[in-house]
Each structure stands twice: as C-alpha cells, then as structure tokens.
Amino acid sequence: MFKRIRNLASKELVQLTRDWLMLALILIGPTLELVLLARAVSHGISHMPAVIVDQDHSEFSRQLVAAIDHTDELDVIAYVDSPDQMDAWLERNQAELAVIIPRGLEADLPSGTAQVELIADGTNSIAGSTALNAAFGAINAFMARRAAADARNLPTLELHIQVRYNPTLNVRQFTLTSQLGFIVYQVVLIVAALGLTRERELGTLEQLLVTPLRRLELIIGKAVPALIVASVDFILMWAIIVWGFGLPMRGSFPLLLGLSLLFIFAEIGWGLTISALSRTQQQAVLTVFVLALVDVSFSGYIVPVERMPVVLNAVAQVFPLQHYLILIRSVILKGADLPVVLNQVLALAVLGIGSWAVALASLRSRLD
C-alpha cells in the first residue's frame, strides 16, 4: 500500500514540475503577498504625501511645516496658494493630508486665537488616521519645545481637524469598495478562463473549429458571457453595498458602470489568455486563484502602492485591479468626475488593449 501511495505521489510531483508556469505562480504568488504584508506590518505606514497651504509666510509657519515634514509618516510634497488648489490634490489621491496655515497665524499666537486646520483623506481610514495622528503629534511636540525654550512665552495653537469623504474614518467604507472590485475581478477572470478550456476538456473544441465561425468570432463569442455575467454581478454587488450596507454613493452611477465595463474588458483579455494556456478547467481555476494573490498584493489593499519600493510601485501600474480600486473609491466616496480620474481611465484602456493583444496571439497560436 505504501509503495502505491509513494508511486502516486511521485507521479503527481513530476507532473507538477513539468508545468513550470503553474509551479512558479504557486511559489511566487503567496511569497510575494507575505513579503508585502510583512513589510507593511514591520515598517508601518510612512512617507505619506502632504500638501501645505501657507498663507502666513512667517518664520513660525516655516518652522511648523518643517516639524511636520521631519516625521517618518509624512512628507511635504507641495505648497499651494489657496484651499481651492488643495482640494484637487486630495481628489486625485495625490495627498493624504492637507495643512492650512491661515494668514496672521504668528501675530495671533499671543492672543491664543491662532488656529491651524488639518484635512485628511478618509477613503483609506488607516492611512487617514495615521496622517492625522502624525501631524497632531508633530505640532504638539513643536509647541512644547517652543514653550520650554521660553518660559515667559506660552503660546497656544488650536488645531481644527477635518476628515474628507469618510468623516468617521469608518474602515468599512474602504473594505466594501475593495471587496466590490475584487468580486468583479474574480468573476470575470473565472468565467473567461473557463470558456475554451471547458470546450477543450469536453472534446467539443474541434467541433467548433470546423464550423463556419471565424477565429475572432469564436473568441468574441467566448468573451461576451464573461462581460454579461460580470456586469450583472457588479450591479448586484453595488446595490447591496449602497442600499444594504448604507455606503454613500456620491458620484455618478453611469460613470461608475462605464468604468467597470472598461475594467471588465481589460480582465477578459487575461482570462482568455489563461483559457488558451490551460489544458483543463482545474488548471485554469488554480491559475486564476494564484494570479489573484499576485493581483491583490499589487492592488494597494495590503500595502498602499505609493509606499511600495520604486520597482514594485512601477510593477503595480501594469495590474488593472490597482487602477480599478482607485476608480471605485474616487467615484463612490469622493464623487469624482471623469477629468479627475482620467489617468486611471487611460491606464485601464492601454492595459485592456495590451491584454487583448496577448490573448488573441495566444488563442490563435493554440487554435491553429
């Protein structure tokens, strides 16, 4: 009995090593996710971009900004002239925190009426709360040092804190929008990946190839069900999180639906590529599962993309899911319109064209 079990196990291991692509995905996917997660846990969230509105232009305001910039969590990346310019940085996900220093701040210090405003992006509740805490701690420490240096002068500085898009920093808003994107991603990839693989495994692919259908028509015919199923699934999931869980819908639903269709188009290309390369349905499903681990790692859900190393940050830009999650949060939570998310839209369009080019080349080589 043990000999038979050993022989069967040996055969399975040999079979696994022959499929080098699957073996690489199985080893690299979980390993990459673990490395990124360990990096996030061990180093925390750091180097978050902050934008400054300094209307005072005094020595005190410059020292205050320097104290914020010297924290590990925050990096001052830009100075703007008015709060209106600051809004664009938050809307486009270019800054996690904005600091507004009003005109006459230094002059108001002795009277105790000086006030600084901190505005955080709450779409990612963890990053938003971390940015607020870092700025709050830096300012308080700076004021304590000034008081210790001059015991006769005990200035007070009032901090007015505001959280945009998610005032209570409810982590559910970040999680629900992410899950919406993940579910659509998984559905479209699985349906597209099983299309031709099912025909090949059942032995009916040869029958389809001898019909008057052209290769392109066959490919499009296999892509349409994935498009329909994923679209229906998106609408259903959107209705559940908005009406069932009370997630605020601040943007345009037609815009969100159109962007979702663009994302589905891009992912169908990768699903068809998996379908062309897989020999069985089991292999296709396992490939989708392992590929999902890699996509999640680079989506910004585990580690914000902006805080990844430069090389991994560049790699993350080729994953459609990362751009789609930004689009979902921007439209649903921020009420963003098309010009605000244009960079992500163009990225999805380019990636979609690229994925379909790879899919068509793979399918034609396997079908001919």
Report on this structure.
It is a single chain. Helix 3 packs across helix 6. The chain is α/β, with parallel strands linked by helices and 368 residues long. It folds into 2 domains: 121 residues, abc type-2 transporter like fold (3-Layer(aba) Sandwich), CATH 3.40.1710; 197 residues, no CATH class. The chain is 67% helix and 9% strand. The relative contact order is 0.11.
How is the topology of this model organized?
Layout: H1 2-18, H2 20-43, E1 48-54, H3 59-69, E2 74-80, H4 83-91, E3 97-101, H5 105-108, E4 115-121, H6 125-149, E5 158-164, H7 171-202, H8 205-209, H9 215-244, H10 253-277, H11 281-297, H12 310-316, H13 320-334, H14 342-367
Parallel strand pairs: 1-2, 1-3, 4-5
Antiparallel strand pairs: 3-4
Helix pairs in contact: 2-11, 3-6, 7-9, 7-10, 7-11, 7-13, 9-10, 10-11, 10-13, 10-14, 13-14
| Structural shape | elongated
Read across the widest sheet, the strand sequence of neighbours is: 2-1-3-4-5
Report the mean per-residue pLDDT as an integer: 78
Poorly predicted regions: none
Percent range of helical residues: 55-70%
**Overall tally of domains:** 2
Distance between the termini: 45 Å
Class computed from helices, strands and strand pairing: alpha/beta
Q: Number of helical segments?
A: 14
Q: What oligomeric assembly is this protein in? A: single chain
Strand percentage: 5-15%
Largest sheet at a glance?
Answer: 5 strands, mixed
Reading the helices and strands in chain order gives HHEHEHEHEHEHHHHHHHH
Supply Rg: 26 Å
| Total beta strands | 5
